[in-house]
Amino acid sequence: MTGVPASAAGGSSGAQGAPGSAAEGPAGAAVSGAQGATRTARGGKLAAAAVNQASVWNVANLLTMLRLLLVPGFVALMLADGGYDPAWRSLAWAAFAIAMITDLFDGHLARTYNLVTDFGKIADPIADKAIMGAALICLSALGDLPWWVTVVILGRELGITLLRFLVIRYGVIPASRGGKLKTLTQGVAVGMYVLALTGWLATLRFWVMAAAVVLTVVTGLDYVRQAIVLRRRGMAERTAVSEESEG
């Protein structure tokens, strides 16, 4: 019996407190909601930043970094003991082969698993040209390959890269099958020259390099043609849009 009045009293105090709670409820909820939204926004920004930071360290970019690190190692192996020791040349070939294989995989992985990053877009072509340029320059410096071959191949690669940047405002020049075949032929030819080959294999590598030089020139001219067509088309579209807006 004594517990009933106490409960009733407690109920009254709860009832008295209810208006206050009802009066403070909307304002409190608004403040709590604003604070929660602020925390959520900050948390979202931090999470997005963490994801963007982590995305640079994906497997495709790690393979690209590996190729960049292989360049000085390849040069050291290539020039070790005067540059003519078959054992050191074999090790240099292994480094070059690893770089070429990773070149085949990093781009495929980036496109397949949506791992494309700004770092990869910049570092991947640099790594490609760095290892190929290092190999060609070393071979020419050692007298194994004529300098004009190195100049033609590297001049083409640098020229096409510059051309891509010049016409990028009008569109992107896609990689052609001829360009991919050129890259493969160059890799095989340079790899054969890195090895200390003799006899019919030395003759074979000469013809493989000749094919690589021909593909280098032909595909380079094709890229120039594509760039001219792309620029003309882009300028025509801009002119048409400008005339429509003025009309």
Could you please describe the fold and organization of this structure?
This protein has 247 residues and is an all-alpha fold. The protein contains 7 helices and no strands. Helix 4 packs across helix 6. Helices cover 85% and strands 0% of the residues. The N terminus is likely disordered. The protein is globular, with a radius of gyration of 32 Å.
Chain-averaged pLDDT? 79
The share of residues in helices is over 70%
Principal-axes shape call: globular
Q: Count the E strands.
A: 0
Largest sheet: none
Poorly predicted residue ranges = 1-31, 43-54
- How far is it from the N-terminal to the C-terminal residue, by CA? 93 Å
Order of helices and strands: HHHHHHH
What amount of the residues lies in strands? under 5%
Sheet/helix structural class: mainly alpha
Radius of gyration: 32 Å
Count of DSSP H/I helices:
7
Helix and strand topology:
Layout: H1 3-55, H2 59-79, H3 86-112, H4 118-141, H5 147-166, H6 177-194, H7 200-246
Helix pairs in contact: 2-3, 2-4, 3-4, 3-6, 4-5, 4-6, 5-7, 6-7
Keywords:
247 residues; mainly alpha; disordered N terminus
What is this structure, in a nutshell?
The chain has 247 residues and is mostly helical. It has helices spanning 3-55, 59-79, 86-112, 118-141, 147-166, 177-194, 200-246. It is globular, with a radius of gyration of 32 Å.
